[in-house]
Amino acid sequence: MKRDQTKKTALTVVFAVLSVLYVMPIVQVLNNSFKANAFVNTETFALPNAESFVKFANYINGMTFGNYPFYKSVLYSFIITVLSAALILVCTSMAAWYISRVDSGFARLVYYLCVFSMVVPFQMVMFTLARTAYNLKLNTPYTIPIIYLGFGAGLAVFMFVGFVKSMPLEIEEAAAIDGCGPIRTFFSVVFPMLKPTMISVGVLEIMWVWNDYLLPYLALDSNLYKTIPIHIQYLQGSYGHVDLGAVMALIMMSILPVIIFYLTCQKYIIKGVVAGAVKG
């Protein structure tokens, strides 16, 4: 009994240290966002003092730097994130329902292809993807969600299939007896029951799309459309000079909504993963 208690205490200490290590980068970003640029380089880990503290000047400089307004980057990131998450949730949940309920070689092939897509590195297809996005006119904030659907479908279908297989088939059969067609059955019966996995998948996809840098950088015309990560990359002056204080401020502004969103919805992620792991 005493040995088990010692083991639990040791694990608690280890995980507490790991938690601090994971949180430290965010704390340092917040710390340096209130320092003058010169002190970010020379006193990176020191707390702001009377000489280095610049209040909210870095936040103001970051949002007003250059000719491209920061609010447009926030707007484009928001549009891309919302459209991509909505498209992924609707399309992949319907695909997962079909895969789970139709016993055919085609359904199994689609499922295995979705699972296989999770192990394909993005770097293998990024140059071909950029050219394809340009040819198909998918290089705008309103069309790039189609590309995100392709890359986000693997994980979403995998999680939805596991959950749908745990749902009783009798409910759908009763809806069919009452005269519901496949589409009405899905949106009236199946879709509401997918709420736990729907929320967990939505949270994961939103965090991924909001923070993504490489795909928008390759697909979008950066002269017309900049997401928040791209905007931060272009936050430099003449001769390559970078205002690190302003960069830290914008990074903090970009990750704060995601942190709040994740902390609010983290319990649903655990519920959705557990529910989707009942059968697989």
Overview features:
single chain; 280 residues; mainly alpha; MetI-like fold; 2 domains; 13 helices; globular
Describe the structure.
The chain is an all-alpha fold. The chain has 2 domains: 2-59, no CATH class; 68-276, MetI-like fold (Orthogonal Bundle). It contains 13 helices and no strands. The chain has helices at 2-32, 37-42, 57-64, 70-101, 105-117, 126-135, 145-164, 169-177, 182-193, 195-211, 214-219, 228-233, 244-276. α4 (70-101) packs antiparallel against α5 (105-117) and α8 runs antiparallel to α9 (182-193). The two termini are 36 Å apart.
**Main sheet: strands, sense, barrel:** none
End-to-end separation in angstroms reads 36 Å
Q: Count structural domains.
A: 2
Question: Count the helices. How many?
Answer: 13
Principal-axes geometry comes out as: globular
Task: Provide the β-strand percentage band.
Answer: under 5%
Counting DSSP E segments of at least 2 residues, the number of strands comes to: 0
Average pLDDT number: 86
Give the helix/strand class.
mainly alpha
CATH class of the largest domain: Mainly Alpha
What string gives the helices and strands in order? Answer: HHHHHHHHHHHHH
Enumerate the spans where pLDDT stays under 50 for 5 or more consecutive residues. none
Radius of gyration: 23 Å
In CATH, what is the homologous superfamily of the largest domain?
Answer: MetI-like
Query: From the coordinates shown, what is the CATH architecture of the largest domain?
Result: Orthogonal Bundle
**Remind me, CATH topology of the largest domain?**
MetI-like fold
How much helicity do the residues have?
Answer: over 70%
